Amino acid sequence: MRYKLFGRSGLRVSELGLGTMTFGEEWGWGASKEECRKIFDAFAEAGGNFIDTANRYTEGTSERFVGEFIGADRDAFVVATKYTLFSRRDHPNASGNHRKNMVTSLEGSLRRLRTDYIDLLWVHAWDFLTPTDEVLRGLDDLVRAGKVLYIGVSDTPAWVVSHANTLAELRGWTRFVGLQIKYGLIERTPEQDLLPMARCFDLAVVPWGVLGGGLLTGKYNRDPDAKGRIAGTKTLNERNLRIAEEVSAVAEEHGCTPSQAAISWVRVQPGVIVPLIGARTEAQLRDALGALDISLSEVHLRRLSEVSAVQPAFPHNFLSSPNIRELVYGGFADRIDDHRGGRTL
Fold first, then answer.
1. Given 3, 57, 117, 183, which residue is catalytic?
2. Does 57 qualify as catalytic in the annotation?
3. Under 8 Å between Cβ of 100 and 93
4. Same domain membership, residue 336 and residue 215
5. Do residue 186 and residue 270 come from a single domain?
6. CATH number reported for the structural domain that contains residue 220 in this entry
7. Which of 28, 188, 202, 326 has its CA 20 to 30 A from that of 213?
8. By the 8 A CB rule, do 194 and 181 touch?
9. What is the pTM assigned to this prediction?
10. Which domain holds residue 319?
């Protein structure tokens, strides 16, 4: 295990993070406490120190398990949790980004995690109702109070994050240092705006859904009934099955598992990328950790990139068209070297 600086901070996190949405069986598909303990221990023994949970995961059980597991050596771990999602359904202020829900959610997380502070508090999702300055000032107060060390933002449009960090810089408030997004071979649209924005602001990118909900393990390609269930589904479609098939082919040629190949592709994408790996069994966790020993060839990486490519949306498709490139660069697009490492002209 190697470690990465977490965005524009000095915080060191393991190059893979442990996602704990599977910690607990309340939602019908998670792991028992005994299995969660095995998963946690295997991750820690491999050198993993970055643990990601949330106040809503398995109705709070995920945080309770994590709090118990880290208890013997709490300061050795970077614990990330989230607020925004509802904690109860009987009043309107038990969800959202506003200061009241922020404070009450954090206090609940601190109790369940059995800790005095959170290393990284994520805004779980943008509610489009709370003013950006209210969110940032509230988070800054938590940092100044010592209850939170760093802040990040998850599942939020690029323009919101850009506005927020610019506002924080201008007012001397705590900045977001991390961005959590759905990203992988199945979902590559963040490459158009979210990932370039993250590089611009030096945000650590923490992808979830790296295996496409298990699709990239190849299990649906091996299922003879899978194609009959494609119609009407969002993820199980012809495109994604074709990507999964190529992942399996690359994995066989390289001598690794499909999961390891898919995780390895994500790890080499531009930016500070710390994939979250989730598991329901210790065996799944150890398989994912095997990605640390995998280095796919350029040929294999290119094949995976090509099969999963997405069409750019406006304005990217407009700006990349030959006639617009000619107008913008006056014929010099291919003769200008960009030392800042931006998009190819």
1. 57
2. yes
3. yes
4. no
5. yes
6. 3.20.20.100
7. 202
8. yes
9. 0.93
10. 311-345
Which is it for strands 204-208 and 50-52: parallel, antiparallel or unpaired?
unpaired
Tell me if 216 sits within 8 A of 307, measured CB to CB: no
Most distant pair of Cα atoms in the chain: their distance:
64
> Same domain, yes or no, for 95 and 206?
yes
Are both 15 and 94 inside the same structural domain?
yes
Tell whether 280 and 344 lie within a shared domain: no
pLDDT tens over the chain, length 345 residues: 999 999 999 999 999 999 999 999 999 999 999 999 999 999 999 999 999 999 999 999 999 999 999 999 999 999 999 999 999 999 999 999 999 999 999 999 999 999 999 999 999 999 999 999 999 999 999 999 999 999 999 999 999 999 999 999 999 999 999 999 999 999 999 999 999 999 999 999 999 999 999 999 998 888 766 655 655 566 788 899 999 999 999 999 999 999 999 999 999 998 889 999 999 999 999 999 999 999 999 999 999 999 999 999 999 999 999 999 999 999 998 898 887 665 555
Q: How far apart are CA 169 and CA 115, in angstroms?
A: 29
